Amino acid sequence: MERNWSFDGTMQVVKGIPTPMFYISQNFFKFIKPGSQRVEISSNQPDLYASAWKNTDNSYSIVVINKSTSDYYRTSLNGAPGNMWIYRSSQFEHCDYGDFYYKGNDVVLPPNSVSTFMYKKGVTELPQYGEILLNEEIKTIENNSWSIYPNPASDFINISMPQSLPGTIQIKDINGRTVRTVNLTAYSEEIKIRVDDLISGHYCVQFINKNESQVIGRFLVK
User: Fold this and answer.
1) For residues 177 and 146, what is the distance between their CA atoms, to the nearest angstrom?
2) Which is it for strands 17-18 and 190-194: parallel, antiparallel or unpaired?
């Protein structure tokens, strides 16, 4: 990411073209209605900022900002209803609803993103107080000697390893779900994995063996 796009400038439209700030504003204005009341919510992570609102139709909107420029965060919403829809703005998303359905599970927030969790009628209501708890911070390992290419990808990715390592490669989507698993042999130094059946978006690659589990990199499917 070249700049801290989420918080740069104030112009929402330039030469008739919506800017990132326009879409970020939609995460608030589209889901927080006139007459809404603030609901207390807190975060235990300094890079995550949250606000919660009860709308006049008894629906709830929770807006979570991840200000980190590099780190993904896996979070849970204490006291949240079992089902919520998520709309997200990030480097490649414009207040988009995607495959981010929150169903009582943790959700991953990408760097420099704004996510709106939207309560739907017919689901158990939120309590008056909620809390965002950080379960896990996902960081790329330092001095990473693995490589993933091409990136962005459309058909396949190649993963080059520093040495032959037995274990398992898992590809996880932005919600932390495993979408692909590949078993490595002791003779594997480079593998090719199909990604043409994955939806567009960000994915992380995790290496697992009996001694360790670590994120080795991330890639984008276009």
Assistant:
1) 22
2) unpaired
Q: How far apart are CA 145 and CA 86, in angstroms?
A: 35
> Three-class SS of residue 64?
strand
Q: Per the structure block, which two tokens stand in for 211?
A: 């001694």
pLDDT band at residue 157 using 50, 70 and 90 as cut-offs: very high
Instruction: Name residue, tokens 């420099």.
Output: 112
For residue 66, the cross-strand partners are 48, 113
* Residue 39 structure tokens: 């609901």
Predicted local distance difference test score (pLDDT) of residue 190: 84
Residue 53 and residue 15: Cα distance in Å, rounded?
Answer: 33
CA atoms within 13 A on the CB side of 165: 20
| Per-position DSSP letters for 101-154, written without gaps between them | -BSSS-EEE-SSEEEEEEE-TTSPPPPSEEEEEEEEEE-PPTT---EEESSSBS
Specify the pTM.
0.50
Smallest CA-to-CA distance from 87 within 25, 168, 151 is with: 25
Domains of the chain: 5-138 (2.60.40.1180), 147-221 (2.60.40.3080)
